[in-house]
Amino acid sequence: MSKQKNCVSIGVAIVEDDVPAREIIAGWIRNTEGFHCVGEFDDAETALAKLPHDKPSVVLFDINLPGMNGIECVRKLKPRLPDTQFVMVTVYEDANHIFNALSAGASGYLLKQTRRQELMEALKDVHAGGSPMSSQIARKVVQNFYRNETQNAGGETVELSGREREVLELLARGFLYKEIAEQLKISVQTVNTYIRRIYEKLHVRSRAQAVAKYAHLPMGATH
User: Which residue range(s) make up the domain with 153?
Assistant: First the structure.
């Protein structure tokens, strides 16, 4: 592990079995001020054993790993590392992988062609409370809002107000709470109130779970 440069340095771990790709990302992290590399792992099993002790701020996860896949590993790690943010970095662009990852506890979803500057900005974003996604992924998530009436697991219609839906769509696009407030010309406190109501209606506990659950289903009724 490299030495932490200052008190605000963001610790990042990488779980990736492609050695050249992992080394490139690790180099970016080590050579960017404000970041340090906590660890590098080439399989989920080793990451599962060591990350709870390392407690990184952010973990970059490949999905297609030997043995346990990245999504299942995130699902197991999230309860043990509730303050750690998990970001998938993968070649998969299909809806199933996206929503399974978000439901498992990932806060971001990037494609492997993401460039250095974009990746470092995504790390800052997720550390600050955002949900960074490659533009193609965000588009797929938002498109899934526009379907017909749906029902939640309990068989009841999910009803979100027009403003609640606007807030949720901005969450899906990776906006921070402050940015949502500015976009909708409301206070951050009001944004928090809307998000609390959204969580209650969707029976979820996090931004990623809310985005995954609602986007994976057809559009609920609004009022």
Answer: 144-215
Residues 190, 81 share a domain: no
216 conformational bin, left if phi > 0, alpha if psi -120 to 50, beta if neither: alpha
Same domain, 52 and 91: yes
Top pLDDT among 203 and 122 is at: 122
Give 7's contacts (C-beta < 8 A, 6+ positions apart).
Answer: none
**Tokens found for residue 18:** 């492609």
Summarize pLDDT for 153-188 with one digit per residue, the tens.
444 556 778 888 888 888 877 788 888 999 999 988
Residue that is last in its domain, among 86, 109, 134: 134
- Cα 55 to Cα 5, 48, 216: the distances in Å are 17, 11, 30
Q: Are 175 and 100 found together in one domain?
A: no
> What average pLDDT does this structure show over 205-209?
71
